Predict the structure.
Amino acid sequence: MDKKVMNNCNLSTKYNDLSIIHSKKLRVDPANFKILSHCILVVIATMFAKEFTPEAHVALDKFLVALSLALAEKYR
Ligand code: HEM
């Protein structure tokens, strides 16, 4: 995955508005980002079992954690 995409600073900036929507407007409990991330991981693993190598697993997990962190930014 592109290093720029994996950089959490860039993700925070990119998803600033989306974080504000989820925290201030929708008031989604940030614990749900982790739950949804795991659901996405399981669905991708099931649908693309052959391509879902340990490396792909780690990369997707890392990306989803970074995305969840970026979305949780505006709760502070
Ligand atoms: C990977 C994490 C997530 C991403 C990337 C994401 C992305 C989005 C996007 C792009 C929108 C549309 C925002 C807009 O109106 O411009 C949205 C809306 C919404 N999200 Fe999320 N979301 C995530 C996690 C969650 C979670 C965990 C929940 C709740 C459990 C949630 C609840 C909602 C709700 C209720 C809306 C409004 C839907 C509507 O009425 O149109 N999101 N989300």
